[in-house]
Amino acid sequence: LLEFGRSLSCGPEHRLLIHCFAGFCRSAAAAVLLIAQSDRTSPPENAVARLLEIAPNAWPNARMIQLGDDSLSYNGRLVSAMQVHYEAMCKRYPIFGRLMQHGSAL
């Protein structure tokens, strides 16, 4: 994914459509990783903020975020930024927290 991202032209006039089956987990993780990679001078929190401007209810795949954090040498900073978002989503939508805790909607 990141290798593909490096081959893309970046700029405000360029667009990239990213999608997966449900459209809010793997695609959101791919988007935040590509955003982070495209501007390595900005902190990873900026990539998360940009994603949330585009898709405020996204729940990026945590494993993909962890792998991307490692590949981009963020030393856990991208994972931490996503954790803040996950916690905010659990407050906004308590069912998410229960699903993450128990694996089903209890």
Q: In percent terms, what proportion of residues is strand?
A: under 5%
Instruction: Give the helix tally.
Output: 6
Instruction: Provide the residue-averaged pLDDT.
Output: 86
Sheet with most strands: none
C-alpha termini separation: 35 Å
Identify the quaternary structure here.
single chain
Shape estimate: globular
Helix content: 55-70%
Annotation, overall tally of beta strands = 0
Structure classification: mainly alpha
Unreliably modeled segments: none
What is the radius of gyration? 14 Å
What is the H/E order? HHHHHH
Description:
With 106 residues, the protein is mainly α. The chain contains six helices and no strands. It has helices at 2-6, 26-38, 44-54, 62-71, 77-92, 94-102. Helix 4 (62-71) packs antiparallel against helix 5 (77-92) and helix 5 (77-92) packs across helix 6 (94-102). It is globular, with a radius of gyration of 14 Å. The model has no long low-confidence stretch (mean pLDDT 86).
